[in-house]
Design brief:
heterodimer, A: 8 helices, about 25% helix, B: about 110 residues, alpha+beta, three-stranded mixed sheet
């Protein structure tokens, strides 16, 4: 987890119904503090006969609980898991294909392939990975634009973790929603391609902030583009000073060794 | 657009914690740094609860402003140049998010 970890984690709550939930909220911005709240103050005017019960339960509590469960599964099997995110068309699947090719015979790699629909990417990787578990969010998950921890829990059942060393979780192509959901991986990486524009880190700061590594892909195209790599990197540093940055081309193979090095580093 | 998924999580929490009592309103805290659009969330909520046991339950959103704590000078400031998080006093980038990332169900109003 990077420097900008979620602070709502401080409000850990038990699922036990008998648990007393009236404890103090940490940051001193209760409903009486009046800043930014759209409905604050005296609620009694419309609340005759109703009772207000304080809950203070994190919306992500259930997801994070499932994520911790997934992580425990990976840990028990000695498997390292990496959540890989990007916008659509960044070259994420090509990078994963290169990764699988390079690691063949060295590491046993499983892939959890998240897509809204189709098995196109899963089929592309099937010959390369030791195991592929396809997760179409359209089927039974409401067509979600991201993977969440319960979905990944479902996909883990499609893998034999005992015979794997590394699991790559290819998230749905989207720079917004996947950033919000811990899926139980040990580390998060994203692929940003130089065809996407220098301002991406500023437009999608949460995504660029939550990741431990950013692969800047398609650098073989730099001579043909107006892309200002220096500006992109400066923008990236303003939202995430700590991430590992890898300049790569999944097409030519440039930078792929550095990426493999990062993948095989132990998580902090 | 994950507001529908979030609405489902909020509804699950409300249902579980109401313990069978009718829910009139659900009050949530959403930090300014979260990628949640309150209007979209309310629209999704309305669609989700229509015709369900939570039909008619209002969703009230408290927006929680971002506050940064500076590790260099110790100041607590509100970011003025979002999404760039730097100290408002000394401009150091070494800040921790003190608030603004909350996302929780604060309270229920039940019969």
């Amino acid at each position: 987890m990077g420097r900008f970890h979620r602070h709502d984690g401080e409000h850990e709550h038990s699922h036990d119904h008998d648990h007393d939930h009236d404890h103090e909220h940490g940051h001193g911005h209760g409903p009486d503090s009046g800043h930014g709240a759209e409905l604050v103050g005296d609620h009694s005017g419309y609340a005759t006969g109703t009772e207000r019960i304080e809950i203070l339960e994190r919306v992500f509590a259930e997801n994070d609980h499932a994520a911790a469960h997934n992580r425990a599964h990976f840990d028990a099997a000695g498997v390292r898991a990496v959540n890989i995110m990007s916008s659509p068309g960044s070259g994420k699947t090509t990078l994963i294909a290169q990764t699988l090719q390079a690691l063949k015979g060295k590491l046993r790699v499983g892939v959890i392939e998240g897509d809204i629909a189709t098995a196109i990417d899963a089929d592309r990787l099937r010959g390369l990975a030791a195991q592929v578990s396809l997760l179409n969010t359209e089927a039974g998950f409401g067509g979600e634009c991201h993977l969440d921890a319960p979905m990944v829990a479902h996909a883990i059942h499609g893998l034999d973790l005992g015979s794997l060393d590394l699991v790559l979780i290819e998230n749905v192509g989207n720079l917004v929603c996947p950033a919000e959901f811990d899926v139980g991986a040990h580390r998060r990486a994203m692929v940003a391609s130089v065809t996407e524009g220098e301002d991406k880190p500023l437009k999608y700061p949460v995504m660029f902030r939550v990741v431990d590594a950013v692969v800047v892909n398609k650098i073989d195209l730099l001579p043909h583009l107006d892309f200002d790599l220096g500006l992109f990197l400066a923008n990236l540093r303003t939202v995430n000073p700590a991430a590992k940055v890898i300049l790569a081309s999944a097409k030519t193979g440039e930078g792929v060794q550095e990426w493999l090095g990062w993948l095989s580093e132990p998580a902090e | 657009m994950h507001e529908m998924a979030l609405s489902r999580s909020i509804a699950d929490i409300a249902r579980r914690r109401a313990e069978g009592r009718a829910v009139r309103a659900v009050e949530i805290d959403v930090g300014e740094l979260r990628q949640v659009v309150p209007d979209t969330l309310r629209r999704c909520w309305t669609l989700l609860v229509r015709g369900s046991d939570l039909d008619g339950a209002a969703l009230r959103v408290n927006r929680i402003p971002a506050v940064l704590g500076c590790r260099a000078c110790g100041a607590r400031t509100t970011p003025t140049d979002l999404p760039i998080l730097v100290c408002g006093a000394c401009a150091a980038p070494d800040v921790e998010v003190v608030s603004g990332e909350e996302f929780l169900v604060r309270a229920l109003e039940v019969d």
